[in-house]
Every structure is written in structure tokens, then in C-alpha cells.
């Protein structure tokens, strides 16, 4: 049995994912704009590796949230199309039994 879809909840989740994506992009930009120069090669390599890993993580989070937002957008569009079609369809009289 199909469960009804809560359209406002889909919109809310999309908004949260958009905020998460924006935050991840902002953190990535801030992180890359303030790279630390250590002066010592081993320490610099360690810091650079950590920054690279964090940037990769932020980009992965942004990619995944983008995929989910795309899916939610398609679902919302399909629901709106279905509701529109149902509202335009003439109602058929129900025959008594």
C-alpha cells in the first residue's frame, strides 16, 4: 500500500539540504582562502594533507546534497503534475450497489 507523500515535508527537507550545501561551499572557500604556512616541511605536509581531506569531504557532502535535492525536486514535480491531472479529471459517478 502506498503511503501519502507529505509535500510540505519535501519542501522543508530541500531547504535544509540547500542550507547544508551552501554551508559546505562557504566553509570550503574559507578554508582554502586561509591556508597556513608552517615553515617546517613535515608540519606543512601534515596540515596540507588535512586541509585536502577536509575539502574533499566538504565537496562530497555538497555532491550528495545536490543529488538528494535533485531527487526531491523530481518527486515534487511529479506530485504536482499528478495532483493537477487529478483535479482536471472529471469525476465519474459512482453507481449504487
Radius of gyration (Å):
24 Å
Q: What is the ordering of alpha helices and beta strands?
A: HH
Strand percentage lies at under 5%
Q: What percent of residues adopt helix (DSSP H or I)? A: over 70%
The multimeric state of the shown protein is single chain
Total strands: the figure is: 0
The average pLDDT is: 85
Backbone shape: rod-shaped
Q: What structural class do the secondary elements suggest?
A: mainly alpha
Please give the largest β-sheet.
none
Structure description:
With 97 residues, this protein is an all-alpha fold. It contains two helices and no strands.
SSE map:
Layout: H1 7-33, H2 41-88
Short account of what is shown:
This protein is 77% helix and 0% strand. Helix 1 runs antiparallel to helix 2.
Q: Which keywords apply here?
A:
mainly alpha
Amino acid at each position: 500500500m502506498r503511503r501519502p507523500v507529505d509535500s510540505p515535508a519535501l519542501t522543508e527537507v530541500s531547504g535544509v539540504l540547500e542550507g547544508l550545501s551552501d554551508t559546505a561551499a562557504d566553509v570550503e572557500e574559507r578554508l582554502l582562502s586561509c591556508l597556513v604556512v608552517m615553515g617546517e616541511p613535515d608540519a606543512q605536509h601534515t596540515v596540507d594533507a588535512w586541509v585536502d581531506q577536509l575539502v574533499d569531504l566538504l565537496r562530497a557532502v555538497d555532491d550528495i546534497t545536490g543529488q538528494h535535492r535533485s531527487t526531491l525536486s523530481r518527486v515534487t514535480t511529479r506530485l504536482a503534475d499528478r495532483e493537477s491531472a487529478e483535479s482536471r479529471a472529471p469525476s465519474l459517478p459512482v453507481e449504487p450497489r
